[in-house]
Amino acid sequence: MNTAAHEVALDYTNTVQAEKTEDISPTALDEQYDTATIMGGLYGDGIIGLKGAFEPTWADRLGEDIEVLFSEALARPRGAVGRGPNRYYVEIHPERIRGFLDLVTHPWVVAVSTAVLSKDYKIVEIGFDVPLTGSMNQPWHRDFLAPEATLTGRRLNSLAFNLTTVDVEEDMGPFEIAPGTQWDRPIGFKHEMFPPKSLYGRYQERTVRKLPKRGDISVRSALTIHRGTANQSQKSRPALVLGVDAPDAQNAKRHDLQFTQSYYETIPVEHRKHFACRIVDALEPIVQAHTIEGLVMGEA
Question: Which pTM was predicted?
Answer without folding.
Answer: 0.89
